[in-house]
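Q: Given only this backbone (289 positions), what sequence would you predict?
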């Protein structure tokens, strides 16, 4: 979506004509006119600057490839030199480590360096981050609404359980992975420190084994489903097992899991969990170096 009104319809009619000679920046005003009309059905009273570019160009293909790779966990930095009267639109794509994946043929080394240092004029820099990854440990019935809600946000989802009858892909069609793994065997999971984990096995022993493994690898979010007293007992035991201070372990585990929105049923609890992870994720992102 570009807007909540009719701007999409306007562009569908005119975009091909606008880009007949290459990429172009168009400005649309959503301010009301003298007779009180609402331009394009929008009432926000501001302006929208849009970069329109044709498909089937190397720059377009580079952007689409970067977007596709981001869905598989690969971050990128997209630098676009906006079109001017003298020069057409140009683009560079850098990996998370700063390696040049693509650059337009008419880009000089000095221009690239200025853009990377964010001192270049007339450029648009976008950090393309992968969708958050949620690992749901426990494939019971209450895990299903959690997976469904997280999938609506475009998250990458892995469901894990040590019970083969529950770890079935047919039960979690929105998940990218459904894995049958013995409790605590973190080596079977490909994890990063940007992943979010929710423990909901409803088994004291399994939650204990998984939490012990997770706190040793430091993911950005760990939520533990269950009553406070039960959760405290698990965290206290894990603290002794891994040799970490108890207060440190308490700080790294969210319990009761999720924001307090007054939930009662599984769907409402799932909403609380997703809301808390979303809130935490915004403060956990770091710029690409």
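A: Predicted residues:
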């Amino acid at each position: 979506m570009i807007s909540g009104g009719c701007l999409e319809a306007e562009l569908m009619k005119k975009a091909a004509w606008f880009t007949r000679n290459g990429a172009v920046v168009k400005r649309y005003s959503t301010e009301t006119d003298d007779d009180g009309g609402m331009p394009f059905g929008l009432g926000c009273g501001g302006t929208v600057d849009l970069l329109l570019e044709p498909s089937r160009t190397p720059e377009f293909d580079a952007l689409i490839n970067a977007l596709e790779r981001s869905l598989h966990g690969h971050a990128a930095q997209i630098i676009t030199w906006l079109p001017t009267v003298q020069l057409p639109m140009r683009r560079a794509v850098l990996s998370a480590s700063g390696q040049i994946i693509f650059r337009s043929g008419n880009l000089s080394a000095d221009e690239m360096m200025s853009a990377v240092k964010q001192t270049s004029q007339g450029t648009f820099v976008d950090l393309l981050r992968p969708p958050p990854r949620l690992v749901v440990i426990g494939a019971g019935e209450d895990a299903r609404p959690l997976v469904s809600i997280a999938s609506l946000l475009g998250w990458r989802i892995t469901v894990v359980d040590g019970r083969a009858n529950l770890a079935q892909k047919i039960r979690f069609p929105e998940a990218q992975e459904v894995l049958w793994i013995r409790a605590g065997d973190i080596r079977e999971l490909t994890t990063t420190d940007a992943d979010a984990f929710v423990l909901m096995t409803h088994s004291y022993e399994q939650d204990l084994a998984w939490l012990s493994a997770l706190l040793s690898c430091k993911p950005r979010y760990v939520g533990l489903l269950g009553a406070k007293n039960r959760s405290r007992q698990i965290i206290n035991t894990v603290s002794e097992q891994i040799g970490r201070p108890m207060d440190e372990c308490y700080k790294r585990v969210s319990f009761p899991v999720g924001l307090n929105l007054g939930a009662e049923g599984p769907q409402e609890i799932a909403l609380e969990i997703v809301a808390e992870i979303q809130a935490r994720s915004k403060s956990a992102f770091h710029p690409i170096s």
